[in-house]
Amino acid sequence: MGGMELWEARWWEAAVVRRNPDQKKGLFFVVWAVFRRSSPGNRSACSVSKTVPFIAMPRNWVKGNAVGSGSFGVVNLAMNKFTGELFVVKSAASRDGVQVLENEADILENLNSPHIVQCLGRELSKEANGERRLNLFMEFMAGGSLADVAEKFGGALDESVIRRYTGEILKGLVYLHRNGIVHCDLKCKNVLLGSKGNVKLADFGSAKRLDSLRTENGGKTSWQNVSGTPLWMAPEVLRNEGLDFAADIWSLGCTIIEMATGRPPWEDLASIPCLQCSRLHAVMKHQNFQLSYQRRVWISWQNACRGTRK
Predict the structure, then answer these.
(1) Does 90 appear as a known binding residue?
(2) Does Kinase count among this protein's keywords (predicted)?
(3) pTM
């Protein structure tokens, strides 16, 4: 939402107060807080919405059809009834799902980058059946995920397209790593595409701040603290050798393979039982499983993607 739309939304809230004198006492504080904390030029809408979620406070949004799902719950398209702006709402009711969304909101609230999907706010609501539900409001990316795009265009993407997308992903990773954050679940499904070909990193439910993670574990990281998708996870993470920024670089390589082939990396390992418990200890200790195809793809893309450097 742009600066002008933000101010229009705030004036609308002020109009609600004027039309409903009985609500003045409660809503005046809300409107004043929004004006005070959300001036144009503020670094992000998310930092505002953590205190006063302007989308949710007047209940001026309506939920549309489901557009996705995750381990946390459901993702729905939504519309701001005042501005007509589209966004998405991630909803979770289970304890684990709420924890995932809270982690994502906590990570995103301090980030402001054109290569990171924007968080618009959060809302804790109570359903008619008494169930408490956390709604996380996120920027809508019209193109869907890179996994969706690849599927719609025959699986594998063209080299020039992959080169551009890889450059955009790298810029997002550089920004994250400079802020001490590891994404931990980078893959095509978690990279979203705009209508003009711009891509943004998304789905930060598994993301970790390295400093806080190491503080909690005496300076070390371990696999118990790290979640993600096994086929995209770095060997050192799966071997319980710790987590670092390099884990995202491995996942980026796997994502490039995914874009170039239209298939998940190491898909021949998907039936191995140890994958079901999110670890590859037994597999990664062996040197005899077939890597030649993935190595050829990776080496060729190392050369092709050099053009993304700046």
Answers:
(1) yes
(2) yes
(3) 0.69
